[in-house]
Write a structure and sequence with these properties.
single chain, mainly alpha, Arc Repressor Mutant, subunit A, 3 strands, 69% helix, 8% strand
């Protein structure tokens, strides 16, 4: 009975999938001196450009304390920089500071790992999975943001 409950649990499957994906990403990206979490943060910053901690927190779905610690470590390593927001001088934005060559290497590793991770699914299946995951994320974000 318990085994069937675990197999039928979407929550259990999502947690297991996240841990496996994270483990594969961490192993692949380690050669560049970053963790999967740091690579995810950098990827968001490369796509969005400089954004506030609050905006970054919503994008990466990390707790405030976890994100602050990650940004502190990344700033100490020169991967990001905190700067005054051009729109609101009371706010701080986070900027990526990784050299173009290193960025290209990290992005190539992320792309190769993504291909490896999802190669068991057809293009249509990947598109459908992403659509369903986006739908679930959109539905869960308000509950996760509530305090």
């Amino acid at each position: 009975m318990q085994d069937d409950r675990l197999r039928a649990s979407l929550g259990n499957a999502v947690v297991r999938l996240f841990r496996l994906v994270n483990r594969v990403h961490n192993r692949a990206i380690a050669a560049h001196g970053v963790s999967a979490e740091q690579a995810h943060i950098l990827s968001v910053l490369w796509v969005t450009g400089p954004i506030t901690m609050g905006q970054l927190q919503r994008q990466v779905a990390l707790s405030s304390g976890t994100l602050t610690g990650a940004i502190d470590r990344m700033a100490a390593q020169g991967m990001v920089r905190r700067a005054a927001s051009p729109e609101d001088h009371r706010a701080t934005v986070i900027e990526p500071r990784v050299a173009a060559k290193r960025r290209g290497q990290i992005e190539a590793t992320i792309d190769a790992t993504e291909h490896q991770l999802w190669s068991a699914l057809s293009a249509a299946e990947r598109k459908q999975l992403l659509r369903l995951m986006d739908k679930a994320i959109t539905a869960l974000e308000p509950a996760a943001a509530a305090r």
